[in-house]
Amino acid sequence: MRLAVVQQLPLEYYPPVTNLLTFLEESGDFEVRVFSVANTRGRPAWTRKGVRITTLPSPLPGDSALKRLFLQLRFVGSTWAGLLRFRPEAILYFEPHSALPVFCHHLSLFRRTRIFVHHHEYYEPQEFDRPGMRLPKLAHWCERKVLYADAEWISQTNEQRRELFLEDHPLIEPGKVRVMPNYPPRSWKATENRAWKEGAAPLRLVYIGSLSREDTYIEPLVEWVNATEHPVTLDIFGYNVAASTRAWLESRAGDRVAFDPRGILYEDLPERLADYHAGVILYRGNTTNFVWNAPNKLFEYLACGLDAWYPPVMKGIAPYGDASTAPRILEVDFDQLDAIPFERLAQRGDIPHRGETHLAEPVQAALAEALLAI
Q1: Is 184 in contact with 18 (CB distance < 8 Å)?
Q2: Per-residue confidence at 62, pLDDT binned at 50, 70, 90?
Q3: What is the mean pLDDT of residues 97-108?
């Protein structure tokens, strides 16, 4: 089956997409052609034998508004032309940002090409009125007027985001709006957690991902780790960190807190995470999207045997909360860290281990089955 995948965001920032592409290519059922843009943060370009990728330039920080518009329109035109040449039987596009070339192709006498849509994030309607969102706003208008009605599959990452999406778009048939979580592949389960096996003194915490002091609880956590009498350390890995936050972290680094601005390559995460007891999730929930977020890192921590600590504001994680099986998913008030039950957090006792849950392959298989359905 000829499948086009369109994402006007760098593949390297979205492991769920590259995991899915790997799964589809390995299935042998798809001829996959990807249209995307280059990353601007120095990440190695993602490639896969058997997946043909067309990568166009991305705007750089400091580019003029005119240049940014030119590059965005170039992506639309080039991808539209590529779709016309490829003549896909189905198109899977990610996020409203990627909708315009799909819309153009759909109106070019190719309405029989099947449309599938997935959202990494939940977008509140007013978000499209923010500065810099003119083209995504136009693309979202095209979705609402044409693509959503004709799409066979529209998905969000969890049930709460799905419900919010349906409230925003009441004319969409609910049955075609699915849930497709961002889980890691089963291969991650092959790495045994070494930290808990060796004991929990000191308790080793880790954070991976984007950071800012305004949008996360990184500041109170770092200050607590540096000041507490409890035996605890924190390692932070993030290549997408606000400049002011990076400078602040570097000023606080020491024996207990380490910061690596290079991050960790996705393929290296299972081996690196196996040396930690708990992974922290620190979003303050400053938007509805993050309140109802169950982020990739939650399931990545769990797959590698780490407990996951999350703040009460992240209601999207609450349904997964579980202190009765290991690895545990634990609510922690990062504004009141001196009051947390440290000894309980640092000991698992004899609680049973959970089985194979939160793995990507069953979710990916459901999408592949829908793509192949006639």
Answers
A1: no
A2: confident
A3: 95
318-372 confidence digits (pLDDT tens): 999 999 999 999 999 999 999 999 999 999 988 999 877 799 999 999 999 999 9
HSE, side-chain direction, 13 A CA sphere, residue 92: 24
DSSP one-letter string for 221-284 = HHHHHHH-SS-EEEEEE-SSB-HHHHHHHHHH-SSSEEEETT---GGGHHHHHTT-SEEE--B-
Residue 60's identity, in one-letter code, is L
- Whether 1 contacts 30, CB under 8 Å: yes
What is the full DSSP assignment across 99-119? HHHHHHHHTTT-TTSEEEEE-
Domain ranges of the chain: 2-183+361-372, 186-345
Within a 13 Å sphere around the CA of 252, how many CA atoms are in the beta-carbon half?
A: 22
Domain 186-345, CATH? 3.40.50.2000
Instruction: Decide if 12 contacts 39 (C-beta within 8 A).
Output: yes
Between CA 262 and CA 257 the distance in angstroms is: 16
> Pick from 92, 83, 64, 75: which is nearest to 38 by CA?
75
Q: Where are the alpha helices (DSSP H) in the chain?
A: 15-27, 65-86, 99-106, 134-142, 148-150, 159-168, 195-198, 218-227, 243-252, 269-273, 288-291, 296-303, 342-345, 360-372
Query: Within a 13 Å sphere around the CA of 137, how many CA atoms are in the beta-carbon half?
Result: 10
Amino acid occupying residue 288? T
Q: What is the pLDDT of residue 370?
A: 97
If one counts every other C-beta atom within 10 angstroms of the C-beta of residue 325, the result is 14
β-bridge mates for residue 185, sequence order:
none
Ordered strands of the 307-310 beta sheet: 257-260, 232-237, 203-208, 278-280, 307-310, 329-331
Q: Does the pLDDT at position 227 exceed 80?
A: yes
Pairing relationship of beta strands 307-310 and 2-6 according to DSSP bridges = unpaired
Asked, colleague to colleague, whether 2-183+361-372 and 186-345 share their fold, the answer is yes
Q: Cα 29 from chain centroid?
A: 25
Q: Which CATH superfamily is domain 2-183+361-372 in?
A: Glycogen Phosphorylase B; (3.40.50.2000)
